[in-house]
Design a protein that fits this description.
single chain, about 220 residues, Rossmann fold, Arc Repressor Mutant, subunit A, 5-stranded parallel beta sheet, transcription, DNA binding, transcription regulation, DNA-binding, Response regulator transcription factor
């Protein structure tokens, strides 16, 4: 069985211990490192190269957002999930902009935690499109305006891919996409993969962000 190698980053040792206990009860997870600060996380990420990092955002010194930015730039294969206390706060949005693949509340159920890690490890995002849209409504004014390159990228999509692109931006899941377009889920996954590749986007979250910047979903 392939092991997902996880690093825990939180300035509270007790929380790290709790996360470790939950994660190491899973056969396909192993915790390879722990860090108590953003600076330590940056150093450890370079030496350990974990598959997934659970990153607290509020830490003294280098906070989780800056640590996420540096790690994502230097080690893009280490996928980061932001841990936050408050739902839809600016720290969570800042973490996504810095390169995180999603966010979780610290009091998430163990099943939510493990599902998010598996999603991110497989290359998906652990933030739903609907949640992303809500975050954009709250903090989207901080995004740069769309440019000609943003608009020109859409020209690479087929008519059906553009329809799926807009439906993803609405917040539809793969089963909902399959129902709307009368397609199998495997065909939907193929469309989504091609859309991401053609647009040079990392995941579905960034589909929503691009659509928002282009004014294709409401501001």
């Amino acid at each position: 069985m392939t092991q997902t190698r996880i690093m825990l980053v939180d300035d509270q040792a007790l929380l790290r211990t709790g996360f470790r206990m939950v994660l190491e009860a899973e056969d396909d997870f192993t915790v390879v490192a722990e860090a108590g600060s953003g600076a330590e996380a940056i150093t450890l990420a370079a030496s350990v190269l974990p598959d997934v990092i659970l990153m607290d955002v509020r830490m003294p010194g280098i906070d989780g957002i800056e640590a996420t930015r540096q790690i994502s730039a230097a080690h893009p294969d280490s996928r980061i999930i932001i841990l936050t206390t408050f739902d839809l706060d600016e720290y969570a949005f800042g973490g996504l902009r810095a390169g995180a693949r999603g966010f979780l509340l610290k009091d998430a159920q163990p099943s939510e935690l493990t599902a998010a890690i598996r999603a991110v490890a497989s290359g998906d995002a652990s933030v739903s499109s609907r949640v992303t849209r809500r975050m954009l409504e709250l903090f989207g004014s901080k995004l740069p305006a769309a440019d000609d390159d943003d608009a020109s990228r859409l020209g690479a999509l087929t008519e059906r891919e553009r329809e799926v692109f807009l439906a993803i931006a609405e917040g539809l899941s793969n089963p909902e996409l399959a129902e709307r377009f009368f397609l199998s889920e495997s065909t939907v996954k193929t469309h989504v993969g091609r859309i991401l590749a053609k647009l040079g986007l990392r995941d579905r979250v960034h589909v929503v962000i691009l659509a928002y910047r282009l004014g294709l979903v409401g501001r």
